[in-house]
Amino acid sequence: MREFGYRRASDVQGAVALLGAEPEARYLGGGTNLVDLMKTGVERPALLVDVRELPLDRIEATDTGGLRIGATVTNSDLAAHPEVRRRYPALAQAVLAGASGQLRNMATVGGNLLQRTRCGYFTDVTRPCNKRLPGSGCPAVEGEHRNHAILGASAHCVAVHPSDMAVPLAAFDAAVAYETADGPGELPLAEFYRPVADTPHLETALPAGALITGVTLPPAPVAARSRYRKVRERASYAFAIGSIAAALDVRDGVVHEVRLALGAVASRPWRARQAERLLTGGPASAEAFAAAADAELAAARALPHNGYKVTLMRNLVIAVLSELSQPPAASGASGAATDRSGEAAR
User: Fold this and answer.
1) For the CA atoms of 152, 155, 156, 159, what is the dihedral angle to 10 degrees?
2) How far apart are CA 286 and CA 324, in angstroms?
3) Do the Cβ atoms of 62 and 68 come closer than 8 Å?
4) For residue 246, what is the enclosing H or E element?
5) Residues 6+ apart with CB under 8 A from 234
6) Mean pLDDT per segment of 10 residues, for the chain of length 346 residues?
7) Per-residue burial over 71-84, b = 16 or more CB atoms within 10 Å of its CB, e = otherwise
8) CA dist 287 to 67, 155, 173, Å?
9) Reduced DSSP (H G I as helix, E B as strand, rest coil) percent helix, strand, coil of the chain, to 5
10) Distance (Å, rounded) from C-alpha 132 to C-alpha 28?
11) Can you point out the beta strands (E) in 137-241?
12) Which end of the chain has fewer CB atoms within 10 angstroms, the N or the C?
């Protein structure tokens, strides 16, 4: 590990100034991803700016009826918050599906959004990786790619984003607030992660030196009836091989509103807008859910060893939407956050 300096920021602008004064500095929140990458040599910061004690640890209602979640709110506190569980249950379920209790106690909301891919070629500094070393190549395309992207990838990178939390945030149109030396700004989550194209090392649209200060969830009544489902290779403490955040409002058998985002299939949470358009105003039936899934996944470009994800995600869409289309007493869906994330789609 490279020798590094350490400074604890006392306020947001002070943190931004510290990072601006050192081009090789990094913000430190919970450190659950950054410190691991420092140990392996993937990250080699000259300075860590600790932002954990900044006053960004609250979850508050907004004037419009949404929620604002501070960047240093821990994953554990986010999942346990009664308004999150009541109004956005899929978000609480997604957080509980990630990592372990100990890690959730340390990990922060801002850090979760910025975590790096777990692609083995990225984390191994002895191997080429365009995300880590631009222009060096992407050996995953012809190598080990069983858990890699089927949507939105390119020949330059097929890694997936590992966050569970970001998937329901994408479904619920969250926006990311940040601070720079020039003042505050905000990015819709839909624009926060950059497309891979030929620059996979440029992962977000954040301005240089920006500090995430919070995430805003707009009011979304449909989100109160939502679910997150995660499929993984073991029952706990594993990253997804496929996941879904879904919310559904059915009235008289017709889909009034639907939200759908897919995880572990692309370099960013994949908002399934094509499926949403096809479903809205149509019947809430298994046949309609299957047709919408097929339309969304028509853009999939599977590699030789990850084609199973297309079938997996199709089955997830059908299963979760079918459950949500049932009356609450029958489906068990409510504002209470329960973790059924270990179940596989059949």
Assistant:
1) 50
2) 11
3) yes
4) strand 242-251
5) none
6) 96 98 97 97 98 98 97 98 98 96 96 97 98 98 98 98 98 98 98 97 97 98 98 92 98 98 98 98 98 98 98 98 88 49 37
7) bbbbbbbbbebeeb
8) 35, 34, 27
9) 30, 20, 45
10) 19
11) 175-180, 183-188, 211-217, 226-231
12) C
Tokens 């504002």 map to which residue? 335
**DSSP string of 82-143?**
HHHHHH-HHHHHHHHTSS-HHHHHH-BHHHHHHPPP--HHHH-TTS--TTTSTTS--GGGTS
How many residues make up the chain in this entry? 346
Helix (H, G, I), strand (E, B) or coil at 231: strand
Q: Which residue has the tokens 């992660």?
A: 193
Segment holding 276, helix H or strand E: helix 273-279
Alpha carbon 339 to its chain's center:
17
Neighbouring-strand partners of residue 245: 228, 261
- Contact 270/196 with Cβ under 8 angstroms? no
Measured between alpha carbons, how far is 186 from 175 in angstroms, rounded to an integer? 7
Tokens, residue 312: 């997996």
**Which residue is associated with the tokens 């604890």?**
8
Read out DSSP for 285-309?
SHHHHHHHHHHHHTT----TTTTHH
Take residue 89 and report the two structure tokens written for it: 């249950």
Task: Tell me the domains of the chain and their CATH numbers.
Answer: 1-55 (3.30.43.10), 56-332 (3.30.465.10)
Which residue is it, tokens 């977000």? 204
Q: Is 87 exposed, middle or buried (0-12, 13-18, 19+ CB in 10 A)?
A: buried
